[in-house]
Design a protein that fits this description.
Layout: H1 3-9, H2 23-39, H3 42-57, H4 62-79, H5 89-152, H6 157-184, H7 187-192, H8 194-209, E1 212-217, H9 225-244, E2 250-257, E3 261-268, H10 278-283, H11 286-294, E4 299-304, E5 310-317
Parallel strand pairs: 1-2
Antiparallel strand pairs: 2-3, 3-5, 4-5
Helix pairs in contact: 1-5, 2-3, 2-4, 3-5, 4-5, 5-6, 8-9, 9-11
């Protein structure tokens, strides 16, 4: 709704009662508007800005200010001759009252940009750690293997069995580190896309934990890299919660590409929890998931209750 329209370029009509603004806000707005129309100057405009700032602090929205302005225009029209248009200065005052909301919007946009940049930095650090685990730690373990072989050759056969046991443990550690590095830095996500990466992740988690993980969906065209990475991290966190907190035996991951958004749902058959208990929700890492999705204009919906499992729906809008 434009300032020009609200300033009275069309006849003012009464809005539904459900849209009526708070009476105190409307009266304060009316008083300040009259002062500005009568005397002009910067002081009434400054007070209008302060009114908007206070309304924003009281959880009022743009529509509340718009409703107060609408009611004020109705009063002006009632005092004017039939067919008269409200003065243009009324639109200037209305715009000044909206200025705090615009500043808040810009601040939120800047915060979203900064958070997105922070996520990019964190992804870069995860890749670096994953490469260290895969390459440098792998090389060190290979060197330990060779050293053990050399040492074991100097001992009689009965004693070599102990070294072989140590070698098997080292091989297991090496396998686990390699698996973790692939989960943290999924090259298959860059190469093949989200659905193959989710299938790869499910296979790794199932092999490591014994939980049955099933993935369904259609691959379709590649999504933007940031969207694919965000949904991959959502599924990764949900699987981690299912393993550590839910005591789940099976997890289902579904990827849906709709005309205007892409949705990733992760459902487990675990013990669930009371979603009204905020400490429990924070402990599941959902705050980080919400922030990651919010950077892309996405949303998170949680469906859970005790003894009934947990389902996480992550949705991200698609451009165009």
């Amino acid at each position: 709704m434009s300032v020009a329209l609200l300033a009275g370029r069309r006849p003012v009509r009464t809005l539904p009662a459900a849209r009526r603004s708070d009476g105190k806000l409307a009266e304060r707005y009316w008083a300040l508007l009259q002062e500005y129309l009568a005397h002009g100057g910067a002081t009434p405009l400054r007070r209008g800005y302060e009114l908007g700032r206070q309304a924003l602090g009281n959880d009022c929205g743009v529509l509340d200010i718009a409703e107060a302005h609408h009611l004020a225009l109705g009063r002006l029209q009632a005092r004017s001759r039939p067919g008269a248009q409200p003065p243009p200065a009324a639109g200037d005052f209305f715009a000044q009252c909206l200025a705090p909301f615009e500043m808040s919007r810009r601040g939120a946009t800047e915060g979203t940009t900064a958070l997105r940049h922070l996520n990019e930095i964190l992804e870069g650090e995860l890749k670096r750690v994953a490469h260290v685990l895969h390459d440098e730690a792998g090389q060190l373990l290979a060197s330990v293997h060779l050293a053990l072989v050399d040492v074991a050759s100097e001992f009689p056969p009965p004693a070599r069995a102990r070294f072989e046991k140590v070698q098997r443990l080292l091989a297991q550690i090496e396998c686990e580190l390699r698996s973790l590095s692939h989960e943290w830095c999924p090259t298959v996500l860059d190469d093949l896309g989200l659905l193959p990466a989710l299938e790869f992740l499910a296979e790794k988690v199932a092999r490591r934990t014994g939980i049955k993980v099933r993935v369904s969906g259609a691959a379709g065209e590649r999504l933007p890299g940031a969207v694919e990475m965000a949904l991959y991290r959502v599924a990764q966190e949900a699987l981690n919660n299912a393993v550590k907190h839910a005591a789940a035996r099976a997890v289902w991951i579904e990827l849906q590409r709709l005309p205007r958004e892409v949705v990733c749902s992760v459902r487990d058959d675990g013990k669930g929890f009371d979603a009204d208990l905020l400490p429990a929700v924070r402990g599941l890492g959902l705050t980080g998931i919400r922030e990651r999705l919010a950077c892309l204009g996405g949303s998170l919906r949680l469906v859970t209750r005790p003894a009934s499992g947990t389902t996480i729906h992550a949705a991200i809008p698609l451009a165009g």
